[in-house]
Amino acid sequence: MTPQNILLIPKIERGIVIDHIPAGLGIRVMALIGRWPELEDAVVTLGLNYKSTRMGRKDMIKLQAGPLPPRLLQMLALVCAGVTIKRIDRFEVVEKVVVQVPELFDNLARCINPNCITNAEPHVATRFRRIESGSRYFKCAHCERVCSLDELAGHLKA
Ligand SMILES: [Zn+2]
Fold this sequence. Notes:
SH3 type barrels; 5 helices; 2 domains; Alpha-Beta Plaits
């Protein structure tokens, strides 16, 4: 075993690995996971600051739980697009998905425009559409304010 192998967090027999989380965001992702009562009893391992050839440093989370709720996946796309979700069965990776930035975010984040109708009337669902393919900017469907991915990630809905 090389020293790097020894540092890896233990393999799980069955569950989900969220890999390639940008270093520093692991705690934030843990907080998001904590919003889901059905994941409350899951055994979770949080690894911070692993060496990564691709990213320099990365965080990683292993959950002994079933598939992640779709809304959690959408929030991950907002907060840390590019993470890899691996499904593990019998210690093997049986499915691997890279979380992409979608074209549309439905009711996931609040608008950064304080005068937007969605802030005055919280029951009005928010919708942000990507301004063009590959962009990290989104336009509010209500007030047309353009928000960056980071701004939306900072305004997640409860
Ligand atoms: Zn708006």
